[in-house]
Design brief:
Number of helices: 7
Shape: elongated
Number of strands: 24
Structural class: alpha+beta
Distance between the termini: 65 Å
Largest sheet: 5 strands, mixed
Strand content: 25-35%
Length: 501
């Protein structure tokens, strides 16, 4: 055992290890000036803050100071001695103490606890503090103080206290030397004040003493006042409801009268509007027919007439070309065949426009093939059409894909300056349509969505839950891709992913 300026050290010669005991382990001061060992194996340590007894078995310290009869709390280095009869001598700044360790025993008797005084607004009250009679207070007496004491006088300054106001405090409140407890603004109700104490050796009187406290609440916090308030509120609510109900009935009767008058006026206005709408609808239908006829005539002139005119020119010069160069004649003959087939495809397309139901009755591959042939004949642009798989598509999806392909191919003919195009339709668990050309392309970041019909194509795809994407760069052509997955397939795919998870 080694006393140092940083606590008590225990050195084990076998393990060559040190163990240190400091203030946080219970040592009163870490400057250990002397060590004496009594017959029971207890260590007595002199420090700069009193005498400490240390039990190596339990590793617990017991501190003694001037209140226990020491000459002072400060001792001197090397001022310690143990005689043959076991008496210990320890010297300090105010003399020395002599004692027999066997005569020093802890006080094991719990101290009695009493409440010595009760104050209201710092004024002592002459009342029974034995705990048998409750302390009765009004809600206006909102600052109270309890004073208490432990009746152990060996070292009263070492006595410790804990108090709790049951019904207000959730836990015990520990105090060092303070012997009072104060409370303010207690709500009305019943409480019980408990206090317990220990002597200087840490032996607690756990029972202590308790005294009931009753705080009379204000009238507005009493149960009968609250009950009366609830009843009054209920009556006012019922009266207000009846008044409101009568007001609503009167307003309802007046409203019904006004509604009847207004209904008659609206009925007359509706009849007049229906007549006007019928006249407008009839006029709009006539205008629509006129516009449709004009469009068909324009398309017939722009597409079919132009194609047939080109075919007639080739047919007129074909005999002369054939007589001069048969290879060129075969080439012109093949061109004439493409023009006539394109004209037929254009005519079929125009006939379908006259009969929109054909867009859902004819399979999508036939519609797209016919659309490609019409553009081949009209623009003399080689278009390669591919189909993989076969299945019947929902009418809305078929019309959507056809219109997107029609818009995209018209853009290729009008703007792309392409020499070749490929249209690919795949009909499987997932329906996909791709349209690729080798034209001039464009910068998608600089082209407005309204330009080239891109916004219309995208909205058509999104309306059916299909994915629409476009890739294009100047000089690299354009790629349009549409993908649609049936809802049942999406559900099956989600369930499979869930099972894997």
């Amino acid at each position: 055992w080694l006393g140092t300026q940083s606590g008590l050290d225990r050195f084990d010669p076998q393990t060559q290890l040190f163990q240190r005991y400091m203030e946080k382990q219970g040592l009163p001061n870490e400057s250990v000036l002397g060590i004496l060992n009594d017959n029971q194996g207890q260590l007595w340590l002199t420090t700069n803050s009193g005498l400490a007894k240390f039990d190596p078995r339990s590793e617990k310290f017991t501190a003694y100071d001037v209140t226990d009869g020491l000459q002072g709390n400060e001792f001197n280095t090397n001022a310690y001695f143990e005689s043959r009869d076991g008496t210990m001598y320890i010297g300090g700044t105010n003399g020395f103490n002599a004692f027999d360790p066997g005569d020093i025993w802890p006080n094991t008797v719990p101290p009695p606890v009493v409440i010595t005084q009760f104050e209201v607004f710092n004024e002592p009250q002459r009342i029974d503090l034995s705990g048998e009679t409750p302390i009765r207070l009004s809600y206006q007496q909102d600052f109270i103080t309890f004073e208490f004491a432990a009746l152990d006088f060996r070292a009263p300054q070492k006595n410790r206290y804990a108090y709790k106001l049951e019904g207000f405090d959730k836990t015990w409140i520990q105090t060092e030397g303070r012997r009072y407890a104060a409370y303010t603004n207690l709500p009305g109700g019943e409480y019980r004040f408990h206090v317990k104490a220990s002597n200087g050796d840490g032996v607690w009187n756990a029972t202590g003493i308790s005294i009931p406290v009753i705080v009379v609440p204000p009238i507005w916090e009493t149960w009968w006042f609250r009950g009366f308030g609830i009843v009054l509120l209920g009556m006012l609510t019922a009266l207000g409801f009846r008044w409101r109900l009568s007001t609503v009935h009167a307003q309802k009767a007046d409203l019904e009268k006004q509604v009847a008058i207004r209904t008659a006026e609206l009925q007359h206005q509706i009849e007049q509007r229906e007549k006007a709408e019928e006249a407008l609808a009839e006029k709009a239908a006539q205008e629509a027919v006129t516009l449709e006829r004009t469009r068909l005539a324009r398309d017939l002139h722009d597409a079919v007439t132009q194609t047939l005119f080109s075919a007639s020119l080739i047919a007129e010069v074909l005999p002369d070309i054939w007589s001069m160069n048969q290879a060129e004649g075969w080439k012109r003959l093949d061109e004439l065949r493409q023009l006539t087939r394109g004209a037929l495809a254009e005519m079929r397309t125009l006939l379908m426009e006259l009969r929109p139901s054909a867009l859902t009755e004819i399979p999508l591959p036939d519609l797209l093939r016919q659309l490609c042939e019409s553009l081949i004949g009209r623009a003399r642009l080689p278009i390669q059409f591919r189909v993989e798989g076969s299945q019947k598509l929902p009418p809305d999806l078929q019309i959507c894909l056809y219109r997107i392909a029609q818009e995209a191919l018209n853009n290729i003919v009008k703007h792309a300056k392409a020499t070749h195009a490929i249209v690919t339709l795949k009909l499987s668990e997932k329906v996909t349509l791709s349209i690729v050309d080798n034209g001039s392309g464009f910068d998608t970041a600089r082209v407005s969505p309204d330009h080239l019909g891109l916004k219309i194509m995208c909205e058509r795809a999104e309306a059916l839950g299909a994915e629409f994407s476009i890739y294009s760069k100047p000089g690299e052509g354009t790629q349009i891709f549409i993908s649609w997955t049936p809802p049942t397939q999406l559900i099956l795919q989600a369930s499979k992913e869930t099972e894997k998870g």
